[in-house]
User: What shape does this take?
Amino acid sequence: MPELPEVETYRRLLDELLVPQTLVAFEVLDAHVLATPEDELRHALVGTTVTGTRRLGKNCFLELSTGQVLALHFGMTGDVGAYRHDHDRPRFTRVAFHLSNGLRVAFIDPRKFGRIRLAASQEEFSKAKKLGPDALAITAAQLQQALSKRKQAIKPLLLDQAITAGLGNWIVDEVLFQARIHPERPANSLSIEHFNALYNAVQLVLTTAIEHEAVYRYFPASFLIHAREWDISSTPETTNHLNCPIHSDTIIDKTYVGGRATYTCPVCQPPYNH
Ligand SMILES: [Zn+2]
Assistant: This one.
C-alpha cells in the first residue's frame, strides 16, 4: 500500500512532470477511481495550468491555476507514470492527463481503490476528511498536546489520521521501536522525553523512507522493518532478520493491537507496568 514515503516520491515526480504545464485533455479509461463526476473534472481541468503540488499524509494535491485543487489518493496499489503514445500507456492506467508539451501523465491503479477528487482548496479537503497535521510537519509539542490526555494505547492513536496524517501500520511499528515505546502503553503515561523520542523517531523513519524512495530493503540494518513477515516471505534468505536488530538473540514478537499486526522487541519495548 502506498504510504506517506511512496506518496511523497510520487508527488516529487508529479511536480517535475506537471508544473507548470497546461492540461489539454483529461482521458478516463476507468471511471471507478473518480470521486467527482467525470464531466465536472474535465470542465475543471482542461485548459488550466498545474501551478504546484502539495502532500498531506497519504494525499497528493495538484494545485490548479483556477485556485481549485485535485486530490489524488493512491488506495492500495496506486502509482504514477508518464508516456507519449497510446501504445506506451502503462498497464492499469485508469486516468491520463494530457499536457500541452505532448507528455501524458498516468494515474495507474490495478486494484482501483485509488480516488481522484476535485476540491475548492486543500484546507476544505482536509476538513471534510478530518485530517490532522502532516506527520512530517507535526512537532513534539503538538504530539504531546494531542496525546498526553488520552487513555488509549499509543499505537491506534498514532494510526488515527485526525491526530496526525500519514502514519500507516508498519511506520507506526517502526516509530515505536525506534522510540523504544511499547505499542499498548497508554498515551497519558508518556513523559515529555517520550514525546521528544516519538517526534525524533517519526522524523527518522519518514526521512529515511523518503530518502530511499520507499525501497525498504535499502533501509538501515537498525530498522525493525527487516523483521516483518511480508519482507521475509519476499526474501527467504533473510530469515535471520526475525531477530531484533539491536538484540540479535531476541526474537521479534508478532501480536495484534487494535486488530492490526504489530511487531515489537520484548527487550527494546518492555510492556508498561501501571
Ligand atoms: Zn531489541
Residues 177 and 264 are 7 Å apart (CA to CA). Confidence is low (pLDDT under 50) at residues 235-240. The first helix runs from residue 4 to 18. Residues 244, 246-247, 250, 265, 267-268 surround zinc ion (CB under 6 Å).
